[in-house]
Amino acid sequence: MSNPGKTLSLDENRLFPSDPTQRAIARRLYAQVAGLPIVSPHGHTDPAWFAGNAPFANATELLLVPDHYVFRMLYSQGVPLDALGIPRADGRRAPVDPRQAWRVFAERFHLFRGTPSSLWLNHVFHEVFGLRVRLDAGTADHYYDTITAALQGDAFRPRALFERFNIEVIATTEGPLDTLEHHQAIADSGWNGRVLTAYRPDAVVDPEHEEFAGALERFGDITGEDVHSWEGYLRAHRNRRGFFKAMGATSTDHGHESAMTADLSAAQARELFGRIVSGRFSAGEAALFRGQMLTEMAAMSLDDGLVMQLHPGCHRNHNPTLFRRHGRNIGADLPLVSEYVRGLKPLLDRFGNEADFRLILFTLDESTYSRELGPMAGHYPCLYLGPAWWFHDAPEGMWRFREQTLSTAGFYNTVGFNDDTRAFLSIPARHDVARRVDCAFLARLVAEHRLDEDEAAELAVDLAYRLPKQAYKL
Amino acid sequence: MSNPGKTLSLDENRLFPSDPTQRAIARRLYAQVAGLPIVSPHGHTDPAWFAGNAPFANATELLLVPDHYVFRMLYSQGVPLDALGIPRADGRRAPVDPRQAWRVFAERFHLFRGTPSSLWLNHVFHEVFGLRVRLDAGTADHYYDTITAALQGDAFRPRALFERFNIEVIATTEGPLDTLEHHQAIADSGWNGRVLTAYRPDAVVDPEHEEFAGALERFGDITGEDVHSWEGYLRAHRNRRGFFKAMGATSTDHGHESAMTADLSAAQARELFGRIVSGRFSAGEAALFRGQMLTEMAAMSLDDGLVMQLHPGCHRNHNPTLFRRHGRNIGADLPLVSEYVRGLKPLLDRFGNEADFRLILFTLDESTYSRELGPMAGHYPCLYLGPAWWFHDAPEGMWRFREQTLSTAGFYNTVGFNDDTRAFLSIPARHDVARRVDCAFLARLVAEHRLDEDEAAELAVDLAYRLPKQAYKL
Amino acid sequence: MSNPGKTLSLDENRLFPSDPTQRAIARRLYAQVAGLPIVSPHGHTDPAWFAGNAPFANATELLLVPDHYVFRMLYSQGVPLDALGIPRADGRRAPVDPRQAWRVFAERFHLFRGTPSSLWLNHVFHEVFGLRVRLDAGTADHYYDTITAALQGDAFRPRALFERFNIEVIATTEGPLDTLEHHQAIADSGWNGRVLTAYRPDAVVDPEHEEFAGALERFGDITGEDVHSWEGYLRAHRNRRGFFKAMGATSTDHGHESAMTADLSAAQARELFGRIVSGRFSAGEAALFRGQMLTEMAAMSLDDGLVMQLHPGCHRNHNPTLFRRHGRNIGADLPLVSEYVRGLKPLLDRFGNEADFRLILFTLDESTYSRELGPMAGHYPCLYLGPAWWFHDAPEGMWRFREQTLSTAGFYNTVGFNDDTRAFLSIPARHDVARRVDCAFLARLVAEHRLDEDEAAELAVDLAYRLPKQAYKL
Questions:
Q1: Which of A153, B437, C250, C326 is disulfide-compatible with C330, CB 3.0–4.6 A?
Q2: Segment A345-363, tens digit of pLDDT
């Protein structure tokens, strides 16, 4: 078969240092972790995939439309989201042939050179679909046809891929109003894939969330609590956390604009909540309420044992034109300057020394790694550091995370890798990148005689497998 | 001839990794870009040099007096600016023999070890003047004599050097009051060196600029507009932008204390401008006016197609003693904490999605690379990232720029290199450093199997040549 | 003797790059500095050790109890400070067998993998105590017995170790109320070890220090000045600075929450001081007073020639529960966002250009290295950069310090290494790490042809020995 494309290969030494000493060590370390099961304690895959186990539609639907890493880059280079078939805010789409959208992407695949998206996608192309030519304008149709055809087979249905990917456990993320019906369906189905949920209450915790008022109503309906009273509102959270936990959840997750926390008296909190439910509150009061709710969630974690995650510091929906046209999650979120030392103090003053409380911190502001997060995690018993997140989830970002937190937090105040993705097919690729980068990092420490290789080998397994299970109680 | 100095050499592998795998790749990549013409889309050379083509005076006048990178370091180690013959604020100078000033510099050349100045200067010494001993106290006179003698020859006149340096196009930077007579003279001369201007209106945009009031008067005179009315003032800008464009300009440049922008209504803007021209305004109003003017300039860019550059975040003239004695641009400028996500929002809300608008962002605050600039450029169609700037224009700074923007902005939302210099002779050295560092960076990606070498080779040419031409419409 | 542990070795190439070219250069550079005497211009060893020369008690008392780097990490992983025998705020301790505390530590020594503590401790174990097995649960008693036994011998008394460590000079740090009796005793003893003090007046400069009121009283008593008047208070400082200088001090040190300075008129300062001594002041006034005192201290430095050090940006005692239980210095200090360009301006406006004034700046916020500190030190004659400090005093932190300050400050606006420690035995280890990292850094510059090796060799000696002596006037 004559194929016009250039060869696509995945070198077995990819992401390892080229220095022969370091590379040899990295290879030996990686050999011990390459085959370990995937533990995915935080992410955004859709439980409906595993409940329904329906085949994915085509290359564009599977790999392009859900991946904001991909279409944000294309958009930055002048491709309208409509040309890719990204849904509008009203759920409708521009009339775009998915093959044509794929071509638009393929012609511009060079834009991703050096980015993590190219690492992940090439891994998927090569390992999942067996493609052996590089993606470009000339191979666009070959790709589209190959992928779309493969997706029709049973081996490419969600559960089959889950098993093929050697996923031991995966957590999805649901809002407090979610009925968890897909998780129930999975449990009822007899399939033994382990798909957990996590409690993410932002829509009923952030008074500035566009769905807050309606979500609060339904929060009352679903829990039978008077959620317009402070005590009832808190009980409603306890109620839903209990339900999520009963459905397998081991963690909660909180996406806040900042890591600011508060520790108001009950009377102050009640009064603040009154203003919040009245709808007449200032931006400062909204922020204070969110901060107070972090402390309340920590208190509940102490009771129910759910591990708390905090993902702060994102300016959501920065682009109002696109927000109006296409809604949320279309790549227009941007990192903000973040602060933790003063922001988390109210929460830590209450719960920082509790051995049974666990708070995993993330950041989009890397200047906090060495200045705040490492030193904090290296002191407070409750604090752990989540891995390099979102914009920083690339080999360079992972390396900076390790390099800037190691001296103060060590390895054992970190929690291993999170793929944090809705791009299901990229999960093995993402974990593979993380494992390779950690092995490369450890190899350097060994080559420079800061660790013995047996210690590095133990660490490699800890980072890839043991720490996430432990940190997330999986 | 017996020469007392140590050997000065420029190793052909300088700035390449010492790892043999990476070095070999870097050499191959560099071989493809080493001979490319220089595209210099932003800088501060003096167009009078190319208009008049007069010889440079001597080593001190050419290499020491105009280079604040050099004399700031000497000053930091106790050398008074007068000892180097740096002009006073009134234009006069201390009575210093230029040879003696050169000796002061030569005796302290070790202070520059490891700095970009030593890279650039040694390149100039070796390549432009053929010197083969290192500069130090013992070789000071040899240097002074060799350089000063060479400058008398026709081969060292500005136009001859321009051609020898293989400069395809260079942009200078002029204020809105500039008559561009030198650019006109160059055009009229029949010489085919391409020397463009760029529109830098700071003196009539920043109400706190010490020349603002007078500059505004002359801005009215030169344009024939009533620049004390908001509409007339804006028309005056359009007028001068048009003139600059007619004279070849393809870009504007804006040096602001911050990246804060505003998007006032016409009525609010008119009222604010009224306070500005009255001279009775607060610091906050001055800042707001500057922010509004960035948005106005963006609007004009959309009309006339001039590419907009923003160089924010510098505390100018930090040292008041030196400012009184020696004026501006004497090395006492310092970087400030910078913010872009919130600051640029008003401008981006209006023009962020315009395909025909182009805004190139620079920073002196590297913590914004991964936190703000990379993610922003990787989303907004109008945004591009200028290269590592000023204090960061060193191999380490260039490397950090790439490493911290690659994963979110890729390579194709960057614009190649700017030398941004008034040190004409250093231009080939600076471009050579940039090309070498980019090749070294790419070589690492290839050696770690993240790019194929043919992709890296294309990228090397893109970064050195194609992207600046494209980004700046050259 | 059958020993169950794994081999502990200190590779002679530790911390050197594994690239053979770079490693060979690093080894040659290091050979020239490995044996140089230790110059320790800033630290927290106890002068009583050298005055009394009593033996240290046991492994736990020597290596665990005084080292907050060690017990903060253990605490972060759930070990109560009481289990380690860390003193309570009232001076008493939980009844803990030191051997048992040592076991708790030994069982968790893997937590320190990759951290500077493991580098330092393994160096001490291997070089000072001749241990050849790794520390872990199985070797805990072997370690405890070996170390504790060794400490009984004369060779392990403080003065013998001082000599064995080849310390040319060491500075301790004392408060203004200190009688310096131990320094006097050392001077009177005829022992020729050079142990200097440094003037650290925080307790009488920071109105929010918990001991301020009482310390101020005693400050009056000890100096015979009316310290409730502004002029008397300043005279008291001059008095104590003079006494410290007479006792050998060459420097002062200032630990402030920020680098903010002020330059009030005498009348304003007098009025502010009145509010401070009245005890009725706001947080802003306390901060303003601290800022004013930095400028006053600079003025005094100009008179008496003491070198000024500023260690800003730390949130002390972040954990109120632990502060109540165990007091200060128990590992609960955290870095804060820091700013220098605007903060230091008032002080620099007055003294920035003084050739006889010297101010050494430190930071806990690494984002200031390239943004503020490097550019400032590369301009102001009075400014020098202290080395990577506290949380950043690790190989990676040292490397970032060099990499991010080199291009703007060069090497010669830095002051070599500070061990800044109260862990006496770790001093040779810490200096060795610093020397190795600097040699590795220089080796890379040589291998990439940015320095000649003879220049790097000179620099290696400058950084390890000449610069600290010069900067601190030792």
A1: C326
A2: 999 999 999 989 999 999 9
